[in-house]
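Section 3.1: Structural characterization of target chains.
Under the original work plan, the team committed to producing a structural model for every single-chain target entering the pipeline before any wet-lab resources were allocated. The record below documents one such target. The sequence was received from the expression subgroup and is listed exactly as submitted; it comprises 149 residues.
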Amino acid sequence: MDETNVVVDATPDEVWALVSDITRMGEWSPECTGGAWRAGATGPVLGARFVGFNRHGRIRWRTHCRVIESVPGKAFAFSVLESAMTWGFRTEPVEGATQLTEWRERTGALAAPAKLFAATGLLGRDREGMMVDGMARTLERMKARLEER
C-alpha cells in the first residue's frame, strides 16, 4: 500500500466534503481531470458509481469506479475496475486541525484494458514514484484550497 498525508487547518467535515467531491478532483490532481456520477448517483454514498477522467501527457482515458467506503468526516474510498486499485482518503482530528491521508492499494488482477496500458508503460510509471508524488501534490493543493481564508 502507498500512502501520504498532510495536516490541514480545517475540520474533518470540511476536508471530507472536498475529498469526496469527485467532480472537483481535477482541480487538485496532476493526473485526474475530474469525475462524473453515473447510474443515478448524485454524491458520495456507498455503492455509488462514477467515471473518472484522466490524462498522462497526451494519453487520456476513463476509469469506472464504485464507492466502497463513505463515512462523512472520516473516510472516502473507491475501487477502480480497470486497474484493480482501491484509492481512499482518511481524515483524523489532530490538535485543532485535520490529518488528511490519501492511500492506494492493488486489490485484484488488472482488467483487459488496463493490461494494454501496462504494456505501454503507462501503469508501470508507479516504479518511478510518480503516483506517490502525485498523491502528495494532490494533498498539498487540497490543503491550499482548504486554508484559503
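The domain at 2-146 is CATH 3.30.530.20 (Alpha-D-Glucose-1,6-Bisphosphate; Chain A, domain 4).
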